[in-house]
């Protein structure tokens, strides 16, 4: 595997992967385990990074629901794999929305 921090000749998809890794670790080190997101770290990350897609991440019930849905191993924290599942699911939902929108002929 080549050096992931080398920005020369980096593809769009490689850049997206690097940004996902950097974004996760931007929030994961604030409290507790530096390789997981606590409930508080998740709330901050959802508000700052996914507010346009998830709506009001300040809502405690919404954050609790996302945490419950993501925390597959029920350890009270979201690890990188669980984070990637969230981003993947949101990406699929956005793609489905735009496909449906385009199929209606409203905008191409």
TrEMBL record:
Keyword check for Amino-acid biosynthesis: no
Keyword Metal-binding appears in the UniProt entry: yes
Keywords, alphabetical: Calcium, Metal-binding, Repeat
Pfam short name (any one): S_100
InterPro entries: EF-hand-dom_pair, EF_Hand_1_Ca_BS, EF_hand_dom, S-100_dom, S100/CaBP7/8-like_CS, S100_Ca-bd_sub
PANTHER family, A to Z: PROTEIN S100, S100 CALCIUM-BINDING PROTEIN
Protein known as: Protein S100
């Amino acid at each position: 595997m080549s050096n992931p921090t080398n920005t020369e000749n980096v593809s769009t998809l490689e850049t997206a992967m690097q940004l996902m890794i950097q974004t996760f670790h931007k929030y994961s080190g604030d409290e507790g385990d530096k390789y997981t997101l606590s409930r508080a770290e998740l709330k901050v990350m959802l508000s700052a990074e996914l507010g346009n897609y998830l709506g009001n991440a300040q809502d405690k019930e919404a954050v609790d629901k996302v945490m419950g849905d993501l925390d597959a191993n029920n350890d009270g924290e979201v690890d990188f794999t669980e984070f990637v599942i969230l981003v993947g699911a949101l990406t699929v939902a956005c793609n489905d929305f735009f496909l449906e929108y385009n199929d209606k002929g409203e905008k191409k």
